[in-house]
Design goal:
This protein has 663 residues and is mainly β.
Length: 663
């Protein structure tokens, strides 16, 4: 009998020890008791991270009995750690109260581009952010578009592609703009033909954050992300209704009128952006040629948010219409004659309709489905030439996010279809269609509190076709990123991966020619790349009043079979794959000094050595400065006054004709 009782007791004890327990955590504002949606909850011993739902709740499941240290953080609040014993006997969710941080405390930045909703300090992929404060500052200085916002970042160059109309593209680390993937809230709607004016048609007024990934980012975004990704993140409605009115008048004849509004109820929310930009022609040196073209642009972008428990549906539509005229001042004024003839005119219509469905699971999983349909119609006119074409594209993406043990797993697939139709056949039939379908998986492993590894693998099938030519290709794209936190002051990130770019007629070079004489693609293949980045970041406090942060990053990218535009001997131009690669390498250095939270000094330097091995003689890539310096000195009293002094230097660079410009 004694043995039976002993065995039963042993079995009962084993069952108790192995039992799995669950507990619900409620994260709240310590001062107002309001729930903190999106708060980050980490079980320290397991390195398991979770996010609070819209009610500030987190369900922790399937944990053995014991004591657990739990770390909780949220943007604008002080981090808190609690020790929780399981099983939990309370009838109500276990409350964790966070105190608002002091104004001078550095806010936690949540990254969306890697789709893991982690704070920037815990993301293995190197992501640079431009935050709300700087966006607001640049919105006041240049409300029309995001060009100024990006130009001030190291390693990024907003390259003007037309001296007449002011068109521009975004270059990262010296590479052509077609290698940079532009996203708005994760939607890829700005590629190929539509990319020529994209940076000039994205207003900053409704943005809350810009995220920049430099180097290959192929796992989640596929082809086109060879040089990097720029993701423009829109504001979302909060509990307080917001109305922002912007009126700007500049000394060079630019007038901007903008309005942004957002609000949220229990079941629905909305955001609304409206912006009108009017620019008079401006001739700085009085040579009868515009330095700033005459332009008029109108944008309206409403979004509707529908909430139902853990499900959110977002529907939006962005419409932009623009007209830009540059060239001879007398022509633009309607006084053309035999000596005043040259002009360049761009008329565009862009419409993007988006649909996004988000559903959170009870086990910290999330399903997201995105669909975007876009139309971009553009007229280009110069003397004796008229180009008119339209691009129709569809982007579909389905993602599943799940967390277990020390891993965060992202799986999914997407489909991108882009069809270009030339409305006026000024150089023969240049209609073309490209299609890319891919499946991907990305794992973020918290090996320890100091080491985090993010690895991804993508499989893509791409097809591009036109009346003369069709080709299909298959790509395997691995990518890996490593974060090492040596201590609280010193961290390092290393990343590398493969990429590709489907052939396209629409590049910086053909944009500068208004596509005149450019022939249909035939016999070409996709460009393929490999590259990587490695950085080191150091933060410290010097004395009691001066904070210092330093970041130094090395980068390298090699593109095989680069697509090159060449004359065909008949006065026209054709694309061919070069036999020798394009290589870009260099480094970026950033330093930030903050004195007593009032004085801030930013210093940045970029060294870029970008070469095309297929060129004879001078192999430096055109339009790439070897040296770039940016600096800003700011004095600020919070919510009262801001004064700034900015200075920039760009070194000489080569043009396509071999001419070397001045610095």
């Amino acid at each position: 009998m004694y043995r039976i009782v002993l065995c039963a007791a042993a079995l009962l004890l084993a069952a108790t020890l192995s039992a799995q327990h669950s507990v619900s955590l409620a994260v709240k504002n310590a001062e107002t008791s309001e729930p903190l949606a999106g708060a980050t909850v980490t079980i320290v011993s397991l390195q398991k991270g979770m996010s609070a739902d819209t009610a500030g709740l987190v369900l922790v499941k399937d944990l053995p009995a014991g004591r657990y240290r739990i770390r909780v953080s949220h943007i604008g609040f002080e981090e808190s750690e609690v020790t929780l014993a399981l099983p939990y006997e309370g009838s109500q969710p276990y409350a964790i109260l966070l105190h608002p941080a002091e104004e001078e405390e550095e806010e936690e930045v949540i990254i969306q581009s890697t789709r893991t909703s982690r704070s920037i300090r815990n993301v293995p992929t190197r992501v640079e952010t431009i935050e709300m404060e700087e966006i607001d500052e640049k919105s006041n200085m240049r409300p029309a578009n995001v060009a100024m916002l990006l130009h001030e970042s190291t390693g990024i160059q907003v390259q003007q592609t037309s001296a007449t109309s002011g068109n521009a593209s975004i270059r990262i680390q010296g590479l052509d703009g077609r290698y940079t993937q532009l996203l708005k809230d994760g939607f890829a709607s700005f590629g190929n033909f539509a990319s020529g004016l994209s940076v000039l048609e994205i207003p900053p007024l409704d943005l809350k954050q810009v995220e920049i990934i430099k180097g290959p980012a192929s796992t989640l975004y596929g082809g086109g992300a060879i040089a990097g990704v720029v993701n423009f993140i829109s504001r979302t409605p909060g509990t307080d209704t917001e109305h922002n009115l912007l009126l700007n008048q500049s000394s060079i004849g630019q007038t901007n009128l903008g309005y942004f509004s957002s609000g949220r109820g229990k079941r629905t929310g909305y955001t609304l952006l409206g912006l009108v930009n009017n620019q008079q022609l401006f001739d700085v040196d009085k040579d009868d040629f515009t330095e700033v073209p005459r332009s008029f642009e109108f944008t309206v972008h409403p979004k509707l948010f529908i909430y139902n428990g853990n499900t959110t549906l977002i529907v939006g539509n962005s419409f932009t219409k623009g007209r830009r005229e540059g060239g001879d001042v007398q022509v633009i004024k309607g006084k053309a004659d035999a000596t005043h003839r040259y002009f360049e005119e761009n008329n565009t219509v862009r419409n993007i309709t988006t649909l996004e469905l988000q559903r959170k699971g009870g086990d910290n999983s999330q399903f997201t489905a995105r669909q975007a349909l876009s139309v971009f119609d553009r007229h280009i006119r110069i003397p004796g030439y008229h180009f008119h074409g339209a691009s129709y594209s569809s982007f579909t993406d389905i993602t599943w996010l799940s967390s277990f043990d020390r891993h965060t797993l992202v799986t999914g697939g997407n489909l991108l279809v882009d069809r270009f139709t030339e409305k006026q056949a000024s150089a023969g039939d240049r209609d073309n269609t490209s299609l890319a379908a891919g499946a991907y998986v990305q794992d973020t492993w918290d090996a320890s509190d100091k080491v985090k590894l993010e690895s991804g693998l993508r499989f893509d099938w791409a097809r591009y076709s036109n009346a003369l030519f069709a080709n299909s290709e298959f790509f395997v794209l691995p990518r890996v990123s490593l974060l090492i936190r040596y201590n609280e002051k010193l961290t390092s990130r290393i990343g590398a991966g493969l990429g590709y770019k489907v052939p396209t007629l629409f590049t910086e070079r053909t944009e500068t020619m208004q596509y005149q004489g450019v022939q249909q693609l035939t016999g070409v293949r996709s460009e393929r790349s490999y590259g990587g980045t490695a950085d080191i970041n150091f933060k410290t406090r010097l004395g009691g009043d001066l904070d210092l942060s330093l970041n130094h990053m090395f980068f390298y990218t090699r593109i095989r079979r680069p697509l090159v535009l060449q004359p065909d001997g008949t006065g026209n131009f054709v694309f061919v794959n070069a036999t020798e690669p394009v290589q870009s390498q260099g480094f970026e250095t950033n330093a930030k000094f903050i004195y007593r939270h009032d004085f801030k000094l930013f210093l940045g330097y970029t060294f870029t050595d970008a070469r095309a091995d297929y060129l004879t003689g001078n192999q430096f890539l055109p339009l790439v400065p070897k040296h770039k310096i940016n600096s800003a000195l700011i004095y600020e009293k919070h919510d009262f006054l801001k004064l700034g002094l900015e200075a920039y230097y760009t070194s000489p660079q080569y043009l396509y004709n071999g001419f070397r410009t001045e610095g």
